[in-house]
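Whiteboard transcription, Tuesday session. T.W. wrote the structure tokens on the left side:
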């Protein structure tokens, strides 16, 4: 059943859909952010789970804009770098402070929310890639996977 909101402005106001996401990424640079979302996407096109982080810029002219660092567990090398995606994921979760194994990652990912991080936005043609460079409370240990 659908509801015709055009007939009832009050119902429309109460059920108004959220505004669309900001598709105007910040320019290339380094930003101070707070992780506001973190999840595992089991349905990544590679067939491997992907960690997706939503990091909101907290300081400067671009405060409020979002950065979207991500990485997946695919062990196959990327032709352009020779390194597998899991290499970059390992670096990201290590920076966020995770010290467990790959099998325990799903349980740990929600704990990334609230972390203050430094994120680099790198423009690569029509895409912007995001990398978590540093956790601002600085955690440095090896990740065992």
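and on the right, the sequence the group agreed on:
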């Amino acid at each position: 059943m659908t509801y015709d909101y055009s007939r009832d402005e009050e119902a429309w106001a109460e059920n108004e859909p959220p505004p669309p996401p900001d598709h105007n990424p910040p320019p290339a640079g380094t930003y101070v952010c707070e992780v506001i979302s973190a999840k595992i996407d089991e349905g990544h096109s590679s067939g491997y789970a992907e960690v997706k982080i939503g990091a909101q810029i907290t300081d400067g002219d671009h405060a409020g804009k979002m950065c979207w660092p991500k990485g997946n567990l695919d062990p196959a090398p990327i032709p352009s770098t020779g390194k597998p995606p899991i290499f970059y994921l390992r670096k990201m979760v290590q920076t966020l402070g995770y010290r467990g194994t790959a099998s325990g990652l799903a349980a740990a990912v929600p704990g990334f929310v609230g972390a203050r991080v430094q994120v680099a936005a790198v423009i690569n043609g029509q895409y912007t890639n995001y990398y978590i460079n540093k956790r601002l409370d600085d955690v440095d240990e090896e990740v065992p996977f």
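Someone added at the bottom: The radius of gyration is 18 Å.
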